[in-house]
Amino acid sequence: MPDKKFFENLSGKGKAIGVLTSGGDAQGMNAAVRAVVRMGIYVEAKVYFIYEGYQGMVDGGDNIVEVTWESVSSILQVGGTVIGSARCKAFRTREGRLKAACNLVKCGITNLCVIGGDGSLTGANLFREEWNGLLEELAQNGEIEKGAIKKYAYLNIVGMVGSIDNDFCGTDMTIGTDSALHRIIEVVDAIMTTAQSHQRTFVLEVMGRHCGYLALVSALACGADYVFIPEYPPEEGWEDHMCSRLSENRARKKRLNIIIVAEGAIDCHNQPITSEQVKDLVVQRLGYDTRVTILGHVQRGGTPSAFDRILASRMGVEAVLALLEGTPETPACVVSLSGNQAVRLPLMECVQMTQDVQKAMDGKRFSDAVQLRGRSFENNLNTYKLLSTKRTAADLPKTNFNVAVLNVGAPAAGMNAAVRSAVRIGITEGHKMFAVTDGFEGFSRGLIKEISWGDVGGWTGQGGSILGTKRALPGKYLEKIAEQMRTHNINALLVIGGFEAYLGLLELSAAREKFDEFCIPMVMVPATVSNNVPGSDFSIGADTALNTITDTCDRIKLSASGTKRRVFIIETMGGYCGYLANMGALAAGADAAYIFEEKFDIRELQANVEHLTEKMKTSIQRGLVLRNENSSENYTTDFIYQLYSEEGKGVFDCRKNVLGHMQQGGAPSPFDRNFGTKISAKAVLWLSKKLKECYRRGRVFANTEDSVCLLGMRRRNLIFQPVVQLKDETDFVHRIPREQWWLKLRPLMKILAKYKTSYDVSDSGQLEHVLRPKQAEA
């Protein structure tokens, strides 16, 4: 293991950082601006706002302003960008860039953090390359001192991609994409209820002039009948294909059809496909009552989602670290997300690859375009294709395998999307799919029935668990479950659930010695709001719960802004796992979060009260404190509330709020629908592979460790891990993993709330290269 590296050695003294937002706005840009400002001030650098993007840099004067800690207070939950963004023709000319350089040098700014799309970042890189020449010219013209050329010899640039289209190669998600998906899904969910009433077809046009990500993922998240995207145009004769799919779905008693069209959708001859054209086609050919809804700028607006706030905060801090470590030799880099990992990539490599996608589309090399978009895009497309097209009975392979699906543990939003995906992929693979009601308890009582393709229609957007779920473990029902498995000839098992599902698989695995019926492939997909399952960084349902917490905190903060000098204590769920409290605090801009994983005592509580007392002397006269429900046996929510009330007398008053079961309810977020759909599809494909491997002499027999697995997200990949091997990683008493990745983000929350702390940056700092798909290079 390399020595841990902490950023304390990185000082920003004597450095000045300029932050600007450019190009189209995106939700979450403010969270990024806030993180850059606060991290910059934390490392003792000067930080400047550059208002109105490059236009402000060219115009100078009041557009470049030094900022303080309070300057970015209360902007975390605001959509758009508070420092403005403008298209700037002047910056495209050398003369304009000359003015910009002069204005930066006057403020001593040699570090730029640019938040924008690929055009904005390309402009920044050109500016960096010309920097020396620009300074020399300014010195010759007498606009700056000769000594300034040496003093401000090089310009450091770090980019963050803010774009709702997710059209930048090299990053899994750009800032704003998740929030735009929230807007789209809110509209689709609302439209579905009215379409259902009138048996209507709706054609929805979403943004994405050159990139189909929003259209594709929203189609996956709402189970749309058809989707049109620029990277994967429909084949010749798509009109017939689309109409036959719509009429087949209607014949299966589906009362509505949803068609999603990206604004840049094209056919295989690069001719545009418009939403009106699609509507006219449906009306003429099928005579269905059809309406068009163009979502437009609604997608750019509104408050950022929890995911975007955390992503932008992580990237903002990483951007400051990258600027502090920059040298004249360091290429301009972009801070990006790969899986669950923040990475730095050379800016121009990403820009080049983004431009290559467009070239591939222009040259009708559509499969290359899909590959260049990256792994995540390709997976989304393949999953959508599998789930949207029901093959005829004649086309389906026949395996004679029976696969059972059940939910175990507490309900989590996204479970139904996972079940739908599993059932449809299983049927496509040729298996008979069986749904078990009420978890292991229902299994023992024989609540098992075959489930068809049409039975799971419309499930993606439903919260809770339609199959029904119970916390009961299989241990006390082993004989009855084995009997039911014999009766229904169950050859494989998919369990979707939380910590109980993990314990259940361990019990079934241990019972194999006694019962041959359990010698079958079994796989678990983690689904719990607590996100406490070992072997996975994320669980289905946690994102929805996090958004609920964040929305509630936003409302509470607004109520506090009216009354002033008020501190709110908010209790979150999670059992002993502090994920929701910690990440909720990061997303809501809280002052403290008490969790079980990080022990705290009366001295820390006292320090927090003093910190809030100091805060009340500034212009930010409110406080927000989150507490995980089981963070401490004695320092209960009531105790903390009473302590704060007593100690804060005369300075602030206190209120408490227990969020409770609202965190488990509600419609699943786009992330949970998408994650549930993809992870469940992968799990069933693995079961298919295992069934083939374990089929001998007319029966399935699997008794090895690697035939009972948990499928989890680890850093950058979805991987299958034998549940027995995860035992060592588990704290069974407190039902949490022994090591949790998000604890590394805890100092981030403290830094952004103005606490001095130690931040491990061992994972940061390595500039990686963009991996290009092999085929697309040819």
UniProtKB/TrEMBL annotation:
Activity regulation as described: Allosterically activated by ADP, AMP, or fructose 2,6-bisphosphate, and allosterically inhibited by ATP or citrate.
Catalytic activity: beta-D-fructose 6-phosphate + ATP = beta-D-fructose 1,6-bisphosphate + ADP + H(+)
GO cellular component: 6-phosphofructokinase complex; membrane
Localization in the cell: Cytoplasm
UniProt keyword terms in alphabetical order: Acetylation, Allosteric enzyme, ATP-binding, Cytoplasm, Glycolysis, Glycoprotein, Kinase, Magnesium, Metal-binding, Nucleotide-binding, Phosphoprotein, Transferase
Essential cofactor(s): Mg(2+)
Residues binding ATP: 24, 87-88, 117-120
Chain residue ranges for the region called C-terminal regulatory PFK domain 2: 402-778
Protein name: ATP-dependent 6-phosphofructokinase
Annotated organism of origin: Podarcis lilfordi
